[in-house]
């Protein structure tokens, strides 16, 4: 008879640290309020209600607050995040802002690996949360560099692009979809015709789509993609290996590869929105409501307006929800700067004219 092999790695102090870290993250959620569902004004006779789910009111100012919370809980419960070892992330900025905050909450270091083109305001936000920024010239290298830094420092590469979809609780737990439906409960059209999302990791659209299927809704999921993104061609051609040569100009969305967290089979519809139309949409929203929103919100809003025009054309009434992903004050030197828009070779004027016509005629080609 052989003897029993028994290796015991039980570490009481690590378990205690994990328990305390999880408590701090849950306590943060417990003291946070839900985000608002705001009605966007449309002509009353259309009988179509358009809403923005305002994710800019999270404590770290974007929808990435939800993701960062989920990734930290997932990493802690998996035994991936350890005391005295930094967390490292490849990010276009917003995730890093939120992760720096949660790293600070549990007392671990945080390093963000980002493209040099990331807006200055976002870099300042990350540093204010106690994070460090590691900038790289080639945006397609952020993943390798983050992985390498994790090896060098003995830290944990969070890898949002792989884990966003699985770290998020898609069945409920007040995820973004469950929250939207709870807030629509007393509206005249409580089941929207469409929910529009944009994709960076793809996690938000995956969570929404799964939740809709799981709860038996008829609502469609439309993903609005910017120029130069691999998500649309990858979805259209059913090919996950598609790559693009150029990075997206709309921060937070549009990737040069089909990220592992993007779930094409769950997405009903996609639209490619010209970057100039994105800028026209966000400036138009500012003129109409006084609200400044980030670039990706403009991309989703343009798609939502087109869906609205389609419903009008078909004589249908109902509701549409799109996401306000982050606030415009993060991009004053980009989408709200005429100099930047000119340098980028973008001309929002014709799209702006189309939006003005849309509000008069209900048509948006
Ligand atoms: C990440 C991000 C998105 C897209 O969300 P995903 O869940 O990562 O697909 C949209 N807008 C902004 C500003 C983002 O940072």
UniProtKB/TrEMBL annotation:
Keywords: Cytoplasm, Lyase, Pyridoxal phosphate. InterPro entries: Cds1, Cys_Synth/Cystath_Beta-Synth, TrpB-like_PALP, TrpB-like_PALP_sf. It catalyses: L-cysteine + H2O = hydrogen sulfide + pyruvate + NH4(+) + H(+). Its cofactor is pyridoxal 5'-phosphate. It holds the Pfam family PALP. The keyword Cytoplasm applies. The modification N6-(pyridoxal phosphate)lysine is found at residue 64. Its EC number is 4.4.1.1. Residues 35-326 form the Tryptophan synthase beta chain-like PALP domain. Transmembrane segments: none annotated. It comes from the Bacteria. Belongs to the cysteine synthase/cystathionine beta-synthase family. Cds1 subfamily. HAMAP family: Cds1 (MF_00868). A cysteine desulfhydrase that generates hydrogen sulfide, H(2)S. The H(2)S produced by this enzyme modulates the balance between respiration and glycolysis, and contributes to redox homeostasis. Probably eliminates toxic levels of Cys (which can induce oxidative stress). This is L-cysteine desulfhydrase Cds1. The gene is cds1.
